[in-house]
Amino acid sequence: MIRRARGVALLTALLVVALAGALVAALLDDGGIALARTANVQRAAQADALATGLEDWAIQLLRRDLAVDDVDARGDLWAQPLPPTPVPGGRIGGRMRDLGGCFNLNNLAGPNGVDEVQLELFRRLLGALKLDPGIADAAADWVDADLMPGAIRGAEDANYLGLPRPYRAANARFADVSELRLVRGVDAAAWRALAPHVCALPERTRINPNTATASLLQALSPRLDGGGARRLFADGGARHRDFEAFRTALEQAGVFDPAEQAAVERLVVFSSPYFLAQAEVVLDGIPFSYTSVIERRDARRIAVVARGRGLP
How far is the C-alpha of 120 from the C-alpha of 139, rounded, in Å? Predict the structure, then answer.
């Protein structure tokens, strides 16, 4: 009996020790998770603060650049990147992009339906990129208010509701350029090809030939081919002060048609109101990416109008 009692006592003691060990391990594990969560929150807050500081840097650059002149080109102050700079716990870098140098998808929405001029321009851009021009018709249906496809290759709810993961056409302006990935015909390869050339801005805008890509320059006129567009692009060094200078460049490229002058002139501008600031922060080896859309009307009216995480 005594031996049996001793055996029970020993077994009980072992169980207590094992339970205590499990409880200590659980407490240590919970404590480690809590510490990691706290560190993550602090790291994210630090990254957010650094990105906000980079917005201030971008705004000051845009203000200083405007004091020089009101022409925007890739050689301007705002276009000079901030190289990776050490900060406590890591580094930060940044750069800006002129959103006047891309095709604004929301230009497809005209005051009385689809803007046919912008639709044709988008088709030419798709052609220059060797993509299906039908994407332009589907994008136009995405922004127009009705539920009827506007062309044979257009797309409305009926085209999206039958998908494995169904959804509806927005029938409204693009809230973000990434929304284009939902449009019929835009697969992963098409999105990769289009992303450097398109944007989605809160109002209708014109194209800045000084910062536009060669493919977008080619889309400005049906007379422009790839070679003519590359001559206008000038390896990214174009700096046309006004339409007269741009017209001279078109003449030198051998593609200027006086009958097209008014149409092309309505498409372009040489000072841009919207810029994209991109911040890249690395803290404790963990990368954070931020984007900020900055609106610049004049030296006093410069403000952040949209923010996002991750590269556009």
Answer: 12
The reported pTM is 0.84
Contact indicator for 277, 308 with CB cutoff of 8 Å: no
Q: Which two tokens stand for residue 43?
A: 């790291």
Provide the β-strand partners of residue 292.
277, 307
- What span, in angstroms and rounded, lies between the C-alpha atoms of 131 and 197? 13
> What is the torsion angle, in degrees rounded to the nearest 10, for the CA atoms of residue 254, residue 259, residue 264 and residue 269?
90
Which of these, 51, 81, 73, 77, lies nearest to 63 by C-alpha position?
77
For 204-238, what is each residue's pLDDT tens digit? 999 999 999 999 999 998 888 888 899 889 998 99
Distance of CA 199 to CAs 34, 35, 102, 108, 132, Å? 40, 40, 6, 12, 18
Contact assessment for residue 235 and residue 214, using Cβ atoms and an 8 Å cutoff: no
Question: What DSSP line would sit under 114-169, residue for residue?
Answer: E-HHHHHHHHHHHHHTT--THHHHHHHHHHSSSSS-SSTT---HHHHTTSSS----
